[in-house]
Write a structure and sequence with these properties.
The protein is α+β, with helices and mostly antiparallel strands. It is built from seven helices and six strands, in the order H-H-H-H-E-E-E-E-E-H-E-H-H. It has one domain.
Length: about 160
């Protein structure tokens, strides 16, 4: 789906991006319940293979729920795109990220490193930066213990307009 000409892609846009989720989306009339339904749909149907991907969604949606309870809306929370793949038109090379978000101005890409021995950023991160992405790499051991309150987690939340 090309969304570059779209305003920010938010939780309210879920049925447009995931048409099969329309039923789940409409079930929750309460925005907190709807956000929870979207989180569960992403965890169940997006073929997440690693526990840290599930953990990221749970932590992200926890922040979203806090923001909604504080007066925010589904329109103010960005929709995570798990396993998003990017390439330039006509280019065979693609880059897959663990999660991507469209802010309306740029993409925010999140990589999750399972091992502390991984390189600080994946090789393809530089390409994404050249394309204008904000790129972040969460280290699993840090985010297991600190959630999204660590240095990188806070930077991600700032980029997603969820920093407290």
């Amino acid at each position: 789906m090309a969304i570059e000409n779209h305003d920010a892609l938010t939780l309210e846009d879920t049925p447009e991006v995931f048409p099969d989720a329309l039923d789940r989306f409409l079930r929750g009339h309460d925005p907190v319940e709807t956000a929870d339904n979207i989180c569960e749909m992403l965890r169940d149907e997006c073929e997440l293979e690693r526990s840290h991907e599930h953990l990221f969604l749970l932590l992200y949606f926890s922040r979203v729920t806090e923001a909604i309870k504080a007066g925010g809306s589904l329109r103010s929370a960005l929709l995570p795109l798990p396993k998003a793949r990017f390439s330039l038109a006509g280019d065979q090379h693609s880059v897959t990220v663990d999660f991507a978000f469209w802010t309306g101005q740029r993409y925010v890409a999140v990589f999750i490193h399972e091992s502390r021995f991984d390189q600080p950023l994946p090789e393809d991160a530089g390409l994404l930066k050249i394309w204008g992405f904000d790129v972040f790499c969460l280290k699993a051991d840090e985010f297991e213990t600190r959630g999204l309150t660590g240095n990188t987690g806070q930077k991600i939340l700032e980029a997603l307009h969820l920093a407290s």
